[in-house]
Design brief:
The chain is mainly α and 571 residues long. It contains 28 helices and 2 strands. The chain has helices spanning 71-74, 106-115, 123-134, 145-159, 162-170, 179-191, 202-208, 212-224, 228-238, 247-256, 278-286, 302-309, 315-327, 333-346, 351-364, 368-380, 385-394, 396-400, 411-420, 424-428, 439-447, 456-465, 468-480, 486-496, 505-516, 519-528, 540-552, 556-569, and strands at residues 85-86, 137-138. α3 (123-134) packs across α26, α4 (145-159) runs parallel beside α6 and α12 (302-309) crosses α13.
Length: 571
Amino acid sequence: MPALGQDTPESLLPPGFDDPAPTPAPAPGPAPAPTRVAPPGAPVDGVTLPADAEPGNAAEGVQEQVAIDLSRYELPEFARHSLDRVGAFAAGNAAFPADSFGGADGRFLQVLMRRMDAPIASRWASIVLRRALMSPLDTPAGVNGADFAADRAWALLRMGEANAARAVIDDVDTDNYTTWLYQVAMQAALANGDPAALCPIADKGAAAIAQRGWALAQAMCTGLAGKPNEAGQAFNRARSGSSPSDIDNLLAEKVLGTGAQGRRAVTIEWNPVRQLTAWRWGLATATGVEVPADLYQTAGPQVRYWQALAPNLDPVARAPAAELAATAGVFSNAGLVDLYSEIEQGGDSGDAQTVARDLRTAYTDGNVGNRIKALRTLWDAANTPRTRYARLILTARAAAWIPASDKVEDADRLIASMLSSGYEAAALEWRGVAKRGSEGWALLALADPGGASVAAGDVTGFAEGGSRRKAQMLAAGLAGLGKLSAGEAQNAAAALDVQIGGANAWTQAIDAAGQRGDAATVALLAGVGMQSLSWDYVSPEALFHIVAAMRAAGMGNYARMIAVEAVTRSA
C-alpha cells in the first residue's frame, strides 16, 4: 500500500526555498452508516483492555497461571510516548517552543480548532499554523493529551495537511487512543490514501466504535495480511444489510483483494456516485482507481490538497491540484518545481508539459530576456486569482535570479513572485528600481526587516495610483509592523477608512497572546481570523491585529510575509 511519501526523482531544475510545509469536511466512512467525524462535546476516555482472568485455586491442585503483559515486548517502557508532550519534528523546520500555548486553557484551544473553517485565506498564515500544530507541544491543562492531539490533527486535515496530521497522530501510542483519536486516525489514513495505516488499530477501533467503516477496515487488514478466506468472511459480515453494489463496499473489497492470494476482480463504477467522501477518495487512491474530476467539486478543497500530496498518482493529474495547494501553504516552490521536472522527464504532451518546458527556460536559459519572457508566459497563462498567485510561487526562485534593472518592465510581478516564497534578500535588491507608489514599492516597504518608517502620505498616494483595497491592506500591515508612527497610522487609517482601533473578544485574545509571547496561540487565533478561502473576506482590521501579534510574539518574518501576501492577493 502507498506510504506517506516516496523518493522523488532528481530535479532537473534548481530547488526552491521553504519546505512544504464553512467548507464541510468529507465524511470518513461509508453510507448508510458513515464514520463521519462529529467532535464529541467532551473528551472520551480511551479503550480499556479486558482484565486478566482470575488465577485458579492452587489448593485444589490447579496450577496458577501467570499473566504475561505482551505489550511490554511490543513497546518497551523506554520507547513509550508521554501524552504530556505530543508532536513531530519536520525536516528543515525549527519546531515551536514546547510551551507555545502558554497558560491557555486546553478546552478554549479545542473549541477554536474544532470551530475553525479551514482551509484559511492566507498561504503564510497556513504555513505558520501547520508548523505550530505539528510541533512537539506541551498538552495544556484541562484536556486529555490524546484528544488534544486528535484536535490538532483534525484541524491539519481540514487545512489539507495530510502528512502533518498523520505525523501528529503517530506520536501517540495506540494504548493511549481515545474514541475521538480513533475517528481522526481513520480520516488521516484515508487522506493519505493508505488504508494499511488502519491495521494496527483496526481491532481496537472496531471495539470502540460500532460502525461499518471499522468492520470493513478489519476485513481489509485481514486481506492485506494474506488471509483471503478469513478476510472474505469478515467482509461478508461487515457489508451485511447493505447493497452488494454499494460503492463503499466495493472499494473496500478492492483493497482486500490486493493482499497475497486475494484473487478478487472488482469493477468500480462512478456513474451512480453523487458525493466524494474521504473513504471513497482514500480507497480509490490506494488501489489506483481514478476519481472523476467532477466529483472533486462535491468535496471540500482540502481533498484537492490531499491529491497534490499523493505520491502514487500521476504527476500530470497532480499538477493543477499542487498549484492550488501551494496557494494554501500545503505545497512549496521546491515541491512545484520538482513536480514539473518529473512531468518533463515523462515526455508526455499537453498543457503540463508546456508549463514544464517554459519553467525550464525561466530557470536555465542563458539569456535574461528569454528567462523574463518565459516568466511572463507562465504568469499570463493563469486566469483566476488563485492560479495567478500559484504561478508567482512556481516561479519564485527563477525570479530571484533576474538581476535588478530599471530596464525590466515587470518589476512589480518579479518582486511579488520572490516574496511569495520568502526570498526577501533577492527582492530587496530591487529597492532602487521599484518606483515610489508602485505595487513593488509597497511590497518592499512591508518586506524590509530594517526599513525606515513610511509616511501616511505615501500610503494614501499609493491608493490614488491603484487599488483602494490594496492601500487599506498596506496601511494595516505597516501599522502592525510598527512602520507607521502612531500619528501617521491614525491619519492613514482615517483617510482609508480602516478601523484599526476597534476591539472585540478576538482582537483582545490575539493581542494578549502576542504580548505574552504565546506563539502557537497567536498562530491559531490568526487562523480563526482568516476563515475564508479568499482574501476578499479578510478585513484590514484583522490583518493589523494578526501582524502586530505575530511581531510581538517573535514571529516578525511571518508577520511581514502575511502583510506582503495581503497586498499581493487583494483585488
